[in-house]
Amino acid sequence: MTRYDNDAERTFVALPPAQGRGFAQTWWGRAWLKALEDAAMDTAQVKTGRRLARAGAVGAVSVRPGRITAVVQDRDRTAHRADVLLERLSDAQWDHFVDMAIERSGHVAALLDRDMPPHLVEDAAAAGIDLLPGMGDLEPECDCGAWDHCGHTAALCYQVARLLDQDPFVLLLMRGRTESAVLDALQTHGSPPAEEAASLTEGVDAAEAYATGQLLPPLPAPPGLREGPGAPPSLETESAPPPGIDPSGLAFLASRTAAEAHRLLVETLRSGHDRQAVGPEPTVAQDAVRLAAGDPGPDALDRLGEGSGRTREELAEAVHAWRLGGAAALYVLEEEWVVAGDTLARARAALESAWEEDERPSLRVRANRWTVVGAPHQLRLDREGRWWPYRREGGRWVPVGGAAQDPATALASAALATGDEP
Asked: Model confidence at 4, in pLDDT bands (50, 70, 90)?
């Protein structure tokens, strides 16, 4: 229950004892306590404060810009006034904070839900605004005469952690702004000026707009493409992940998704993209190889192999093929198809014209695979009419290069990969 004494102060009635529960359930509440526990010189006083707070010895807590205050009773019922000071943000820092919060609508929505997402704190820190206290930021004052954090100021901090769990606006008030001031600033900064809003409501006559349509300036050029994918937001928080959730795995998926989105955008902006056929959606097994090609950790590799039905060796071969030619190279590695009709006729014509008659190697054919007799070399034909070079290693055929339209070029790549004369 909260009582508003004035526009810049909130007073919280004494909370009941915290039996059977921790003092901070949210990540920002735990970050608040970490600032206390890291800075206190006497850990025994911190433990005393935790015991006092747990026993309900902290009275009503007053929160105002730069200071929190409460009366704390010792075990012998002696009362002490305890204060903890926290530096207030400047007006310029608050302006930066409001501008930053407006840029991401999710920040505002989270605050209204009494939540403080890690990205809000990270974005604020990047703008030079430290919302959460760090080591040494919580400055104690107590009439017991202690020069550092005593049991009374520590108890106050533990109790405030419970308040922060319920409402992160308590932290913003300590930093210098009431909830109403923050929300008013967000609304003011997010709305157009009154003069502009008035002009927008008046509108423009349709006939006038149509008559001047040809005089409008051209549209601006589209924004340039970044050199690489953006960095996904950090998933590191103070809170433990839910059961079954692997933060490192999620971070890897986010980074690979950003890389794939950037690749697709590059292809989309390339000249002639609108005339290219749209390829099929990758299967789960193919997408597992794409992810494995992004160099995840050993645990993730094992999971990708298991999920796609591949052994570790098979997954390594698939990744190698993917890096040579993506999904097409992977298909040639793992799929065998019968070449017939016009496709077979074109393949034979390409093979006959690739070499002079006395130089043509002896090839044994099975499905879409032409193997050189007496040599560890092989050509594989994909459904686009391209030839892929393979060589035999340890009893297995492995890809050794990219595709070529000419079978002689592809076979030369296979020979060079093994150190033979092409």
From this structure: very low
